[in-house]
Amino acid sequence: MGRKRELSELNKWFVWLRRQPTRVKIIIGLTFMISTLVVLNMFIEDHNHFFIASETIHAAGILVLIYKLNTKKNCSGLSLKTQELTAIFTAVRLGCSFFMEGDIHTLLDSITLVFTMWVIYMMRFKLQSTYMAELDNFPHAYVLLPCVVLSILVHPYTNHYLFSRILWAFWVYLESISVLPQLLMMQKIRVLEPFTTHYVFALGIAQFMGSAHWMISVYDTAGKYLYLLGSGYFWLPMVLLTEIVQTFILADFCYYYVKSVWNGHLLVSLPRPRV
């Protein structure tokens, strides 16, 4: 009885939240995010741990996909384009990490790239018959070209070679929107199977952990962090903006994911897009 009462009260809250105007939802989302950041800042002193957590969660999310592909022999609902974009930005980030840092991030990126390439191989060759190519039709160029142009215009100013700095900016921008084909594909399918939703939810958590680093660093330095390593006044503000954009891109999905899991549903149902 207690469990049913809790579910009933939570469902009422979900229904109330769903009916609120977009402005109210944004305010509630920002309040929740800020509260979470405050708690994280209280208990985690080394902000680099946020990046390590983000990369680890991302790799774990891809492991979920590998498990799905290996056991279900089916890649329906999974966007090959997002996997390919992920492989591109991870490879570029790995190169930057190898030549600029050579630390734990290099190892984590290597693992993520290997996992992602395995997923791409399975989708392209082993499970091609189950791939929903007609629903995964978002052109790569719509993502890659803006990232290339923006990285040339706005990139960090450090002691590294110009090409390395442009690559650094490129993977930051590409990572922020690489999940877009997957989200668009899920909007077309609407009813999503568990493993794909677990993967996208992991991306959402990973992205939030990455955003936490930038937001808390800006807060701790009273805004001075925004003007470090920058192309004038633009580089770090642009990084922060891309992190926030990706967090909000994934926030709506994470809402429906949490709602479905809490209610004990294996499938996640997304609402029809409003025209």
Report on this structure.
It is a single chain. This protein is mainly α. The protein has one domain (49-261). The chain has helices at residues 2-19, 22-43, 48-72, 80-100, 104-126, 141-153, 162-177, 180-189, 194-220, 235-262; strands at residues 191-192, 268-269. The chain has a two-stranded antiparallel ribbon with strand order 1-2. Helix 4 (80-100) packs antiparallel against helix 5. It starts with a helix and ends in a 6-residue tail after the last strand. The relative contact order is 0.13. The model has no long low-confidence stretch (mean pLDDT 79).
Can you tag this structure with a few keywords?
single chain, 275 residues, mainly alpha, two-stranded antiparallel sheet, 2 strands, globular
Describe the oligomeric state of these chains in a short phrase: single chain
How is the largest sheet built, in terms of strand order?
1-2
Global geometry: globular
The share of residues in helices is over 70%
Low-pLDDT sequence parts = none
The class by helix and strand makeup works out as: mainly alpha
Give the overall average pLDDT. 79
The largest β sheet comes out as: 2 strands, antiparallel
Return Rg in Å: 19 Å
Could you say how many structural domains there are in total? 1
Written as H for each helix and E for each strand, in order along the chain, the element string is HHHHHHHHEHHE
Tell me the β content: under 5%
Q: How many separate helices? A: 10
Distance between the ends: 41 Å
Compute the number of strand runs: 2
